[in-house]
Amino acid sequence: MRRFIVAAAIAAAMLASGSAMAQSPIVIKFSHVVANDTPKGKGALKFKELAEKYTNGKVKVEVYPNSTLYKDKEEIEALQLGSVQMLAPSTAKFAPLGAKEFEALDLPWLFKDDDTYAKAMKGPVGKWLFKKLEAKGITGLAYWDNGFHMVSANRPLLNPADFQGLKVRISGSKIADRYFRDMGAIPQIMAFSEVYQALQTGVVDSCENTPSNYYTQKFYEVQKDITVSYHAHLQYAVIVNSKFWSGLPADIRGQLEKAMDEATDYTNSIAKKENEDALAEIKKSGKSNLHYLTAAQKTAWQKAMQPTYKWAQGRVGKEVLDLLAKELNIQM
Ligand code: LMR
């Protein structure tokens, strides 16, 4: 009996540690918090399709969208414990992992457009950030794009003064916390799966997100006014449990890397259009008024949020800011 218990415990530990050898086919649980019909949702399904094809079914990818398996914070813990093998959280959620340098990417109006963002992440800063994860038992595989944030409420948000006292849901980044405070708002971290209800019941007044997330989570149904401000960028890092990844047979890992590279190109190529289509659908619904900032209003927002840049030095450190400044050819 004792021997049986010991054997069962070892088998459970092997599974929990994400040991690939213990299973046939090898199962990759890929958990995320957004809908299938978004850039990340489609990217995860594309990775599944390609990974299963290239490994001839030796790998099975189970995609769990919409927080069906874990919510934001739990999924990161689950990855470290080996209960899931792959995630693609927004980089705004990496501070609990001890990698707050990722939050530098949330600085307001840092990236001029999608192309500037994409080019920057292919440079040294993308690799430098991934190195920060290694000590945490996590390997970064790719960056996936999801465009720029809008911001909304049940009143038009056009001037910094409109933010006064507004309770805004943010996803986790202290940089977002800071720039909303600069505007006079009161930011609050909340799991993505709880946002719709929190907006509906008035627990928060406001949120920021990309058009594809507003559309698929129906935030536009409970926010009368959306400002298409595109004030900050939303990007994901596809990450795996390092023990699991390095424990894979080399040929399988190679096929999975190929699948990931192609799924990444695919995701990044559809992100812009997915968001444009989502914005068109929101407009068509007539449920929310879309507002666009005038040049003067945009300048006023930028000026109000400017202190965040100085503050960021103490939060994310100078090294990542210097890397970004160099890559983007800007002064910070
Ligand atoms: C959020 O929590 O607002 C987003 O980061 C969700 C996501 O993964 O796009």
Task: Give an overview in words.
With 332 residues, this protein is α/β, with parallel strands linked by helices. The protein contains 13 helices and eleven strands. It has helices spanning 2-16, 39-54, 72-81, 114-122, 124-134, 174-182, 195-201, 211-216, 242-246, 250-285, 295-305, 307-316, 318-328, and strands at 26-31, 59-64, 86-87, 138-148, 150-153, 167-170, 186-189, 206-209, 225-227, 233-241, 289-291. A six-stranded mixed β-sheet has the order 7-6-8-5-9-11. Helix 5 runs antiparallel to helix 13 (318-328), helix 6 runs antiparallel to helix 12 (307-316) and helix 12 (307-316) crosses helix 13. The longest helix has 36 residues, at 250-285. The protein is globular. The chain starts with a helix and ends with a helix. The relative contact order is 0.17. Mean pLDDT is 93; it is low at 1-21. The chain binds (2S)-2-hydroxybutanedioic acid.
Task: Provide the descriptors you would attach to this structure in a database record.
332 residues; alpha/beta; six-stranded mixed β-sheet; 13 helices; 11 strands; 17% strand
